[in-house]
Amino acid sequence: MPENTVNLCGKLLIAMPGMGDPRFEKSVIYMCAHSDDGAMGLIINKPTPEVTFPKLLEQLSIDGAKDAPDTRIYFGGPVELGRGFVLHSGKYHLDDLTLTVDDRFGMTATRDVLMDMVAGKGPDKALLALGYSGWGAGQLEDELQQNGWLTCDATPEVVFDVPDGDKWVAALKLLGIDPFMLSATAGRA
C-alpha cells in the first residue's frame, strides 16, 4: 500500500448521507481485508428476512437445522451473493480456514464454521453474511476522497450487539458525530 494510505482492515466504513448507490444507504461495513489490490468487507446492519439460518442449513444439507442457534443472516454486499461469510469473535479459529483480522475479529467462509455453530462449538459471537462488498485497486480510496464514507475503529459491541437499525448511528457516535449534523453534500477547501 502507498505510504499515505491507511489500512482499513478491522475498521468500520460508515456510509455518508447522499451516497449514490441505494444498496449502501446508511450501511455500516466491517472491513475484513484491505491492500494495494483492493478491499473486502461485510455490511453488518442489513439483515435479509427472506433467508433464515435453519433454511440455509437445510439448503446446505447440514444436519441440526431445527436445533440451530438463532443467527441472523445479512446482505453482506452485492458481490457473490450466493457465497456465505461468517464474521465472528476472534477466539474462534479454524486453522488455515479463518482469516484473522485482529484479536477481536475473524472471518471464516467455509461450511465448517456453520457445522460448529450447530454443534455448539462455534464462535461466541457471529454474524453471517451472504455476499460481500468489494473494491478494486484504488476504488475505495477514491470513494473516501469523494466523502462517500467515514471510517472508525470497530468494536465488538457495535458489530454484534447493537440492534441493526441503530448500528449506523452507533458507529457515528464512535466518532463523536451527531447524524443530524451530517450533510449529503460535502465541500472542498
Automatic annotation (TrEMBL):
InterPro entries named in the record: AlgH-like
Q: Which GO terms describe its cellular component?
A: cytosol
Q: Where are the transmembrane segments?
A: none
Where does the record place a coiled coil? none
Record SUPFAM superfamilies: VC0467-like
Alphabetized PANTHER family for the sequence: UNCHARACTERIZED PROTEIN YQGE (PTHR30327), UPF0301 PROTEIN YQGE (PTHR30327:SF1)
**Which family does the similarity line name?**
Belongs to the UPF0301 (AlgH) family.
The name of this protein is UPF0301 protein BAR1_15230
